Amino acid sequence: MCGITGYINTNSKSISDSSRIISMLQIQRHRGPDDSGIRAFNLKTGRSKAFNSQEVSNIEDGLDGVLGFNRLSILDLSANGHQPMVSPNGKVILAFNGEIYNAFDYKQELTDWGYVFKSTSDTEVVLALYLKYGLQGMLSKLNGMFAIVIADLDKQELYVARDRFGIKPMYYVTTGNTFAFSSELKSFKYLEGYSFSLNASKLDEYLLFRNNINDTLFDGIKSLKPGHFITYTQGGNLSIKQFFNVNDYNREIPEVVSLQQEQQKLESYLDKSVQSQLMSDVKLGCQLSGGVDSSLVTWLANKQSKSGNFESVSIVFDDERFSEEKYINEVRDALDITAHKFLLDSDYYLDHFEDATWHLEAPLNHPNTIGIYMLSQRAKEYVTVLLSGEGADEVFGGYERFYDIKYPYGGLNLLRQIKNNIKQPSQIFDYFNEANRAVMSTAFMQTDLAQVLRPQFNKQKAAMDRKSLYANLTGTRFDRQVKYEMLSYLPDLLIRQDKMSMAHSIENRVPFLDNEVVNHSFTIPENHLLSRKNGNGTNTEKYLLKQMTADVFGHQFAFRDKMGFGIPLREFFLKDKFNQYLNDKILPGVKSRAIFDNKTVNSWVGNIKGLKPRELEALWVVIAFETWASVYLDGNYNPPHK
């Protein structure tokens, strides 16, 4: 797990020295504190040269592109894993962030082909696969998480690629005569002629969904979509192509097998995925919430760990309404593992609000983001790699809204939406339009509140990109919702996991997003995922996973109501220290920025105790945005020193 950054002068002007790339590397040093490297190059002449990443050096000499890398050493801790890595003939330069779990399946084949390995890293396997199969051939073979940059001096092209589900981030921007790319967009602040500014056209979408689908709130900065790659050619020409399309999945009509057989098959795939993701030369652990997904991963990992005593890390609260400590303890006791639990209180929450925002580089998308920040910070005392349950809900239909989509005329969630949003009888038809129903099911804020907060709010504009995405999806209602969640909701959660864990140099792995696990998920009959078979006739999402969990931890553990990772926001906001922050910093910022209705925000802050839950959530969106704007648009923040 590492960090990549670099740029090319599109006008072919030589780079004078390494000061800019060193600054771009240092600001994301947390992604890879173990080693760093710089290599400058020229696609046209085919020349390249390595430079010291710690001292400013003259470059010039006709080199107009540069690639920098920060390394968090996970596999092959020796200098042989140094990046950027260069091919034996010196004509291909590669920077790779992530882990490829099937990399060593290809090593013998590549050795027989004639490649001589110098390291035991998966990075060199990726390089060799590129040399043998080319870019798209290589990408099609990779099972794992990655962002990759390759400068091919023979082909005079540079490639930037992101894994199929968006587990690892990659951003790019073209400004003036520079094309730049980076694992974290904060590196772009050092580009000549660029400064952070708001892309106001994305505000409506942010307000309604609390994120922007595969995009940023920064003007000019783009997020490379999952399963896509950029080809850059001399002179600044960019083309973007897709190498993986989740829409290619079509749920197969399987042979008639029992639920037990389906469960055994899925367990086999998950077992294999977890086993492959235990590959590491450093210590691993599990991110345990006490829920179904993380508990399953912890069980499978502990079962296969060499020591037989896997470790877990968890966040807990004093308030039992939000804490799943009881279930964390049940997993600990059932597996006889070492469980580290960390208490998140209001003081920590406020003290690290801006730190987490700086690392996320966006308004905090979920109130629990700071919980993951703290968990990663404390986990570093014990492990370097964490396995988590992220992705299971999206792939296996784990949200209540999957029922509302499949059974549109009986969804209680839908009826609540109608009650909260309908102002005119004619608008009720919007909620029985399939695309609108699917898109709005992931909305965080009700449209009437969005309109109050921002009078010029435009619902059609806010949902436009998402409706366009949904319109191109295929399959049953359930399958379209799964694909929509994987393309719109999941990448945002994965970015949060990546940024909060990498803030503390922790690698986060997601076994539920193994290629083969996801492939297999589309062979499971829908009625094994959405089922009313839990004994009391109520809806049960991701039933197969819950049944698997019940066999290990008991029926009551597995089939309890979904709690999620809630935060006692109201209680935190009411604390004197947080209330002072709201009055001294948030409210003046909201007033001067004039994006949200100042009168409404003031009244909410003055009546936190009496706010309805949906008003409290809407206030959270405003606070998260204003904090981000202060940190990035105003520059009112100094990065934390660890």
Report what the structure shows.
With about 650 residues, this protein is α+β, with helices and mostly antiparallel strands. The protein folds into 4 domains: about 1-245, Glutamine Phosphoribosylpyrophosphate, subunit 1, domain 1 (4-Layer Sandwich); about 250-395 and about 490-560, Rossmann fold, CATH 3.40.50; about 400-490, no CATH class; about 570-635, no CATH class. About 40% of the residues lie in helices and about 15% in strands. The chain is built from 25 helices and 18 strands. Strands 3-2-4-1-10-9-11 form a 7-stranded antiparallel β-sheet, with helices on one face. A 6-stranded antiparallel β-sheet has the order 5-6-7-8-12-13, with helices on one face. A hairpin with a 4-residue loop joins strand 7 (about 145-150) and strand 8. The radius of gyration is 24 Å and the shape is globular. It starts with a strand and ends in a 9-residue tail after the last helix.
